[in-house]
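stuck on this one:
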Amino acid sequence: MRLPLPVLAAVSAAVLLAAPLLLAAPAAAQHRWIAPDFASPSASITERKLDAVAAAMTAMAMVKHGYRQMMASAAPADRQRLASEAQSALAKAVTDQGISLADFRGILEAAEGDAELRGKILKRLGVSGESEPGAEDDDPDAEPDE
């Protein structure tokens, strides 16, 4: 399943903000979670980990999109099972990128309070921060200026 880029970008940005909540239940249920120490996040987080976080967020967006569609058409009796499967699939989407759930959550929590770190993650996702006044619209479907 391939999502259109604007949808993927929007979902990825939403996942960036909500990922700690999405992963809270399975992480808490499996073991006690201890946040990694990212005292100086922008300096201490490797580029590889940032790449893994962005890749995990993209994978999570696809998982979330797929399960949202399944939940919409599922019988009420199947929704709890699907929700549980979705939680496991979200966690797997993270760990499949070679990053632990603890590091993933720690980096996202650090990004909440560090605009530079958040910008690095969003850049990897292809999501710009705030648009600058007078910036050109990059809509690929727009008519060319003549």
Q: What stands out?
A: Confidence is low (pLDDT under 50) at residues 27-34, 131-142. DSSP finds six helices and no strands in the chain. The first helix runs from residue 5 to 30. Helices lie at 5-30, 41-44, 47-73, 76-95, 101-113, 115-125.
